[in-house]
Design brief:
The chain is of the alpha/beta class. It has helices spanning 17-26, 48-56, 77-94, 112-129, 133-146, and strands spanning 8-13, 35-40, 61-66, 102-106. The radius of gyration is 16 Å and the shape is globular. It starts with 7 loop residues before the first strand and ends with a helix.
């Protein structure tokens, strides 16, 4: 378990979080390579099904990174995204998973350091939780069919 490297999916708003990630890169501020960024026009476009699909496809943790509160380029997309993240947290709890596997993060375009820090912090948090319950279940099924 100590060599477990979690797969993280980050849905990033084009205007803020994605630009912050780009700034981190241009300033050569490193963040974990296991954070896979999916650029979205607005976090308001990220639905609960997208987050759950990321888990189904192997993510150990998912975060939605959007504009600062009150600063959404599409008025209130980040507020809608925040409510959806809370909804998914409830779904995860109902499934017996840790709700901390999904998070909403707000930042502005100029926060390259915050993007990198958040990516590292979230990765460490998920590393402590261990692999996604889906992976554990699939591993168990695999061993049962072989043995």
């Amino acid at each position: 378990m100590e060599n477990f490297e979690p797969e993280i999916v980050a849905f990033c708003c084009h205007y803020c979080a994605y630009t912050a990630a780009d700034m981190a890169g241009s300033k050569r501020i490193s963040y974990p390579a296991n954070v896979k960024i999916i650029r979205v026009p607005c976090t308001g476009k990220v639905d609960a099904i997208h987050i759950m699909k990321a888990f189904e496809k192997g993510a150990d943790g998912v975060y939605v990174a959007g504009c600062l509160e009150g600063d959404c380029h599409f008025k209130n997309g980040n507020t809608r995204a925040s409510h959806r993240v809370e909804h998914v947290q409830k779904i995860l709890e109902d499934l017996g998973w840790e709700k901390g596997r999904v998070a909403m993060i707000n930042m502005s375009a100029g926060m390259g350091e915050r993007f990198a820090g958040t990516a590292l912090e979230f990765t460490e948090k998920i590393k402590a939780l261990g692999p996604s319950p889906i992976k554990i279940t699939n591993t168990d099924k695999h061993h049962k069919t072989i043995g």
